[in-house]
Amino acid sequence: MSRVTLTPAARDALRGDEVVFFDWHVTGLCCADAGEFSVRPLRRSRLPRRARSLGPTDLVYAHPTAWAHLAELPVTIDVRPLWRWRRFTTDLLPDAGLRCCLGRPVRDRSPRPETHGR
Questions:
Q1: Fewer Cβ atoms within 10 Å of its own Cβ: the N or the C terminal residue of the chain?
Q2: Are the CB atoms for 7 and 76 separated by under 8 Å?
Q3: How large is the average pLDDT for residues 17-21?
Q4: What percent of the chain has pLDDT over 90?
Q5: Residue 26 lies in a domain
Q6: What is the pLDDT of residue 10?
Q7: pLDDT by residue (tens digit) across 60-77?
Q8: The domain spanning residue 57 has which CATH number?
Q9: CA 78, CA 14: separation in Å to the nearest integer?
Q10: Nearest to 17, CA basis, from 40, 45, 36
Q11: Are 34 and 98 in contact (CB under 8 A)?
């Protein structure tokens, strides 16, 4: 099961009929799996039929392709209010979707070692 957690601020920012939804955006034409994540609040009644639950709280759902990449990762969801808007964020790297597609570690924050003189 997933280890997705919501900060208290993110939990408070959700309205009574809302959940957090990890969407998957296809970015490549050659690979069916090439894409990136986005996270947004969504009314429970507007969830896609194929959305899968992430975490034990039933407050976080994901697109099936995103779920396949996130199911075993520890992810923290927070919210950053900007005037009257709510921007939900995660502690994933900005290129986490691309890393998943290429088989690179999503949690590795160290720079890639340089390869000289192949």
A1: C
A2: yes
A3: 94
A4: 34
A5: yes
A6: 94
A7: 999 888 888 788 888 899
A8: 2.60.300
A9: 11
A10: 45
A11: yes
pTM of structure: 0.78
Residue 115 counted as domain residue:
no
Please spell the DSSP secondary structure of the chain, one letter per residue: --EEEE-HHHHHHS-TTEEEEEEEEE--SS-TT-EEEEEEEEEGGGS-TT-EE-STTS-EEE-HHHHHHHTTSEEEEEEEEETTEEEEEESS-TTHHHHHHHT--SS--SPPPP----
Within-domain flag for 69:
yes
List the beta bridge partners of residue 21: 40, 61
pLDDT for 93 beyond 90 = no
7 domain residue, yes or no = yes
In total, how many domains does the chain have? Answer: 1
How far apart are the C-alpha atoms of 91 and 76, rounded to whole Å? 6
Q: Nearest Cα to 1, choosing from 42, 51, 47, 52?
A: 52
User: How confident is the model over 4-25, as a mean pLDDT?
Assistant: 91
